[in-house]
Design brief:
InterPro entries: Acyl_Trfase/lysoPLipase, PLPL. The strands form two sheets. Strands 2-1-4-3 form a four-stranded antiparallel sheet, covered by helices on one side. Strands 5-6 form a two-stranded antiparallel sheet. Helix content is about 30%, strand content about 20%. It is globular and about 45 Å long. It is α+β, with helices and mostly antiparallel strands. It folds into two domains: about 55 residues, no CATH class; about 70 residues, no CATH class. The protein has three helices and six strands.
């Protein structure tokens, strides 16, 4: 499993995890630790401090094989929402091309302040449909 994490000491931006169940849990916690928002003490893993790699590389691409990119934001990822905008304008942040859209700003707000359960269920269903659409377009799903 490869994740995107940022290490304050070595400036590492991602690494592969070959560890125990506890190691996976700690690394998962690090991958979603947003400084200040989630606290001030970054996750300690093997004696080093780690936090969400989305600040530096939200979509790590593996050096070999094909990487399927997934994002909750509309952009140029393989699996993502599809916002219908009159004028498509994109910006790049942390190795991720995102569309400049009102819906993406709303998604960012939902990432920081979760919406109602009903809205979360709707977002889940939308993501499921986006994934199925991608799998069908690649002839990986029937």
């Amino acid at each position: 499993w490869t994740g995107s994490f940022y290490n304050l000491k070595s400036s590492s931006k991602s690494f592969a995890v070959n560890s125990s169940a506890v190691g996976y849990i700690v690394v998962l916690l690090a991958s979603c630790f947003v400084p200040v928002y989630a606290g001030f003490n970054a996750v300690n893993y093997k004696g080093e401090k780690w936090f969400d790699g989305g600040f530096t590389n939200a979509l790590p691409i593996l050096p070999t094989g094909r990487t399927v990119t997934v994002s909750p934001f509309c952009g140029r990822q393989n699996i993502c929402p599809n916002d219908k905008e009159q004028m498509e304008m994109y910006f790049k942040i942390a190795n991720q091309d995102m569309m400049l859209s009102a819906a993406n700003f709303q998604r960012l707000g939902h990432a920081l302040f979760p919406p109602s359960q009903e809205k979360m269920e709707s977002v889940f269903q939308d993501g499921f449909k986006d994934a199925v659409n991608f799998l069908e377009s690649e002839n990986w799903y029937e």
